[in-house]
Fold each of these.
Amino acid sequence: MTVFNRIRAASVSSLAEDSTTGSPFRSIQYKCTICLPPAYIGRTQQGIEELLNARLLKYDPRLGGVLLTYSDIEVLGSIGRVFNELPEILYEVSLKALIFTTAEGMRMKGTVKDVTAGHITLLVCGAFQVSISKEQINRRFKFNVSSTSWRDGDEVIKSGSDVWFKVCSVKSESGAWFIDGSILEDNLGVDL
């Protein structure tokens, strides 16, 4: 377990402000407590940056998404604190963060990376994997074995296609993030 896992969110205020935009990107002001090992005494800024860098492109439930970048790190207060018998020094920190987040029902576009008779795999923004199971594919699409694609007349879902989908669920496990999607609705599918 990394020391960064002990960060506790004090405020993630702008998430609600941005939630109506439909964009999966959120710029937030994030306040937290970071625990630094004594090895970082005299190198607080370096320690904070190393811990944050280890969390880049990983899902963090406290942020409600994946940390993409951060800036404007500010240590609040002039000194760190030691709490009970913990060996780390606690620092209150404020920073600006850009996160990638999504929620059930959000409409997104991804690029198809893999197509089988059982599912479609997409990448959103070239980095975030989405799985659409056969049960979540509109029945108007039929799987074509010879071309390894899902077809509905001229509408073809194949590797490289851009597809609009709806987020069904978002799960995380050990820093990994899993998005399940659906193209059951008639207005979802290939971006023509």
Amino acid sequence: MGTEGPLVGVLALQGAFEEHQKCLEAVGCRTVQVRTQKDLDNLDGIVLPGGESTAMGLIGTNTTVGESKKTMWQCLQDFSKEKPTWGTCAGMILLAEKCVGTSAVIQDGQALIGGVDITVCRNYFGSQVSSFEMNTPPPPNASDQSSPFPGIFIRAPAILWAGPGVDVLGTVVATPCSQAAVTLHELHKKIEKGENVVKLGVVDALDRDEAGIHYKVVVDTATEEEKKD
């Protein structure tokens, strides 16, 4: 690597790739935006930024690159097996082995790169307007381990389960939004039946069937008196 900082790629299909570049460069890394297979050459690692995981998946799985005719997603899967790969928010979703709360209006819901033995729930905390801040455990390398660390949750996913090979650095206790709660209830029922769930779509927003796309009400918030009326 020499005296220069490591060369870190930032996936630039969509999302906050420029913001991630600025943060990496501030700590001495060299950065390059990654959009094609060729952009992966000579990288020391890659960061998958926050953004729209569904949009990234659609672009990555429908873009064929190079003579290999591999999709960008397949190239990223190969890269992540060999070199350090980091995922922030949407990027974390992409690196998960399992995902619940995937889009009901996109075929197959959510394209995953995989590689990290975790189960994530998309939009666990609700929509953009439900974004919030709360204290979280400090990072392991923080100089002050006695003070809480500010956590920012912007339409955030949650890790529901981590495999034995995953080091959990901290946990928070939080209540899922109503949509995520219903999705998790459906997941629990499938697990009780012995099903091995890799992807599970939302169950109380948009639904798709032979008649087309429509709104599906799962959580009925009407009171008993309102129902009588």
